[in-house]
Write a structure and sequence with these properties.
single chain, mainly alpha, 4 helices
């Protein structure tokens, strides 16, 4: 079986250039984070929308 790195997987879906273009046109900080967090961490959308204030580091 061929091993695929996480970065390779991310680049197959959204290139760094395209991610930065989307971030550049985001209207507010929330929209920036909705693009940046899953792209940088690999978090699933369902996991992202389930996050709450109580889930932050250093509660």
């Amino acid at each position: 079986m061929t091993r695929v790195s996480a970065i390779g997987d991310l680049n197959a879906y959204l290139s760094p250039k395209r991610a930065e273009q989307l971030i550049a046109v985001a209207k507010n900080p929330r929209d920036v984070l909705l693009i940046r967090i899953p792209w940088r961490t690999g978090t699933r959308v369902s996991e992202l929308i389930g996050l709450g204030i109580s889930d932050t580091y250093g509660r």
